[in-house]
């Protein structure tokens, strides 16, 4: 039985890098049971989730993040919403999307909610014929001004993000982090590939392996799919549509019942016209 997926955080102070390791096997397994995308479409979905979920590591307490991709070529819509607590929900439309596009042309909207702020921080990133892994790295650079790069495992549903720390001067101690992302990754790549090949969700194995590579363990959090939909919310949303468009537009003249499906978790709710009679 798979353990709940977990995002691990580490730091290499000597070389000036942070590393975030996403053990996402349970998360991807759960999403595969929910979503109908097959073959290339789900493989693309899998890569997108393993890339985007690493961004939870940048969230402070109480913050949330939404990544909304509108691709025009090929046409699809991807939504991923997450909280600092590790809860996430996602959808990919159309539901039968089956391509694995080498590149996409469109744009990405990044929405960050901040406690006690009336309006979320929003930025738009144009995606001009890039693959999704490159686009996430582009989002990190444009929206977070970070030198970061994401690497996906071909062996298991796991991924890694490394970020370069800025040089600092504290108490007259100067740190000069001159090593680049590419050379740092090459130095640790074999250790990570060995870990990927083990397909392990074991907490101790993951932490010990990365500590042996020179990293200091900072902490971790569970990452799991969570949908807060409910029948009550569906009824409220349907009532708002009825107020705008009328009963006949929503139910039709001869239909007294509707089945409404949550886009995120695919739960079906049966709602009767009689529920709105009052």
Briefly characterize the structure:
The chain is α+β, with helices and mostly antiparallel strands and 278 residues long. Helices cover 30% and strands 35% of the residues. It folds into two domains: 5-225, Hsp33 domain (3-Layer(bab) Sandwich), CATH 3.55.30.10; 231-276, no CATH class.
> What is the H/E order?
EEHHEEEEEHEEEEHHEHHEE
Side by side, the strands of the main sheet go 7-6-3-4-5-12-1-2-9-8
The CATH homology group name of the largest domain? Hsp33 domain
* CATH classification, class level of the largest domain: Alpha Beta
The largest pleated sheet is described as: 10 strands, mixed
Mean pLDDT, all residues: 87
Number of strands: 14
SSE class: alpha+beta
| Spans where pLDDT lies below 50 across 5 or more residues | none
CATH topology of the largest domain: Hsp33 domain
Shape: elongated
Number of domain units = 2
Q: What does this 3D model show about the protein?
A:
This protein is α+β, with helices and mostly antiparallel strands. The protein folds into two domains: 5-225, 3-Layer(bab) Sandwich (Hsp33 domain), CATH 3.55.30; 231-276, no CATH class. It contains seven helices and 14 strands. A ten-stranded mixed β-sheet has the order 7-6-3-4-5-12-1-2-9-8, sandwiched between helices. The chain has a two-stranded antiparallel sheet with strand order 10-11. The model has no long low-confidence stretch (mean pLDDT 87).
List keywords for this structure.
two-stranded antiparallel ribbon; 278 residues; Hsp33 domain; ten-stranded mixed beta sheet; 2 domains
Annotate the secondary structure layout.
Blueprint: E1 5-12, E2 17-23, H1 25-34, H2 39-52, E3 64-73, E4 75-83, E5 87-93, E6 104-113, E7 121-130, H3 132-144, E8 148-152, E9 158-164, E10 169-170, E11 173-174, H4 181-197, H5 203-212, E12 216-225, H6 231-245, H7 247-251, E13 257-261, E14 268-272
Parallel strand pairs: 5-12
Antiparallel strand pairs: 1-2, 1-12, 2-9, 3-4, 3-6, 4-5, 6-7, 8-9, 10-11, 13-14
